[in-house]
Automatic annotation (TrEMBL):
This is Uncharacterized protein. It holds the Pfam family GSHPx. It comes from the Eukaryota. Keywords: Oxidoreductase, Peroxidase. Belongs to the glutathione peroxidase family. The lineage of its organism: Eukaryota, Metazoa, Ecdysozoa, Arthropoda, Hexapoda. PROSITE patterns: GLUTATHIONE_PEROXID_3 (PS51355). Gene3D superfamilies: Glutaredoxin. GO terms for molecular function: peroxidase activity. GO terms for biological process: response to oxidative stress.
Amino acid sequence: MRSNPFPVQHVYFERLDEFPDRGVSHYLKFGKEERTCSTMQSAPEKAKSIFEFTVTDLNGNETSLDRYQGSVCLIVNFSTKDAAFEKVLGLLTPLLRKYHNETRKETTDEIVKRFECSSSGMIGEIFAEIEVNGSKAPGVYKYLKAKKPGNCGGFINSNFTIFLTDRQGVPVERLNAGIHPYTLEDMVENLLR
């Protein structure tokens, strides 16, 4: 079995959309959010979208991804210890600022404070540290890798692997951090139409 050179990752999940509500209602818990997704955890590759999964937030709470229904999303794994962290953050931040609702869920976690204090600023939601490869990878990552395996047979071999999903929560692209910002922006624009 191949060892994972990046065993613990952060998941950066950003909803790319213009929010009509301009409030915090998209962070409220709805009935569906409380459900368990045990079927999807045991056979994630059979899921129809990312909206069938839950992830763990920085406070240890399970959060359903169905709250992003109708939104184009970027899902990025990253490590703050990676030398390319600031560069990739600089790549994503202008694009995310263009589509992001300035009101976002507040948290006191130190890692979020660090991001928000960085020179480029952090936008988006950060979820708990995870393993993106192997048996301990959460269902949503197993699903993403099954739908968009990339060149390594589904293995994520570097930080900053970017999955772009359409409004139905289906992955349409798997990209690396070397993508040009304008190319990424064009892809997002096409999905928002």
